[in-house]
Amino acid sequence: MAAGPPLAVAPGADTAAGAVAGLSISRVRARAIGYRLSIDVVDGATLRIVSWNCARGLDAKRAARLLDLGPDVAVIQECAETAELDGMFRVAWAGAIPDKGMAVFARPEVDAEPLDANAEVRRWCLPVRLAALDVDVLGVWGFAKNGKAGPPREVARTAINGVGPVLTRARAVVIGDFNDGPHFDAGNGRSFARTWELLESAGYRSLYHARTREAYGAETAATLFFKWRRAEPFLIDHAFLPAAWLDAVRGFDIGSPERWLDVSDHMPLVLDLAAPRPNEPVGPAAGPST
Question: What angle in degrees, to the nearest 10, is found between the helix axes of 152-161 and 191-201?
Fold first, then answer.
């Protein structure tokens, strides 16, 4: 698969002091990132997508911290149906209870709109189309109690499989809190391995693994510090892209616990993608194989 050069996970800036050199869709943005997996310089317009489990609600403090990242699109888990972000509108929200669900927010420039999906799928995989770019975003939250429909390591894969027609367009970013990872395969029926295989069969690649070149099961970064404990790190938040888009990635970062652990046990994922041209072919995609 096409991928950028191997890049080691290294500590990054924990303040919003350093600005990105290129122009984003919305504005020149500062970075408030932890682990730095990629270059900072952006050539031309970029799309910034952030995914973050905000833990117990998107209050004013958490919202301000998130907006420091300058997202064009934000996929937020554990937020209320009434959650708001200044300068962004709530494209879609889904959840079993009003104060704890998943939302996708976007800036007006990307012309985002929700895609059709049945209620069961939307609880764990929220599909949105960025009409200005002809790019789809599939927000993921593998949360078992979000509808009580099975263990978390099953619902995300089942929901992703339920949006097969979106995947086969090969123009989607699949990103979010899967509540699963290679660490959990043992004793769970290869749970994440089967999700990985489903997405790979549709032509998608794990962005973390493509950029770091780390072997499956040998990951060195964490997106969750379980119950805020640094001694219990797990990589359970993920981003998958069409293989043909890997060379268009201008940045992929994971927040650091020093910057984020005071507001959530999850670290945000921050993806900078050179904005694909609408209707530009990205190569054939196979359908997901169940």
Answer: 10
In whole angstroms, how large is the CA radius of gyration of the chain?
Answer: 17
Task: Please write the tens of the pLDDT for every residue from 158-186.
Answer: 899 999 999 999 999 999 999 999 988 87
Nearest to 49 by CA among 275, 260, 274, 269: 269
Q: What is the pTM of this model?
A: 0.83
SS3 59: coil
Q: Is residue 52 part of a domain?
A: yes
User: Residue 24 phi/psi, 5° resolution?
Assistant: -85, 180
Q: Which of 177, 187, 199, 206 is nearest to 102 (CA)?
A: 177
Task: Check: CB of residue 259 under 8 Å from CB of residue 270.
Answer: no
Residue 102's domain is classified under what CATH number? 3.60.10.10
Question: Which residue is listed with tokens 């509108």?
Answer: 89
What amino acid occupies position 159? A
Q: Is 35 a member of any domain?
A: yes
Q: How far is CA 63 from CA 95, 127, 257, in A?
A: 19, 22, 17
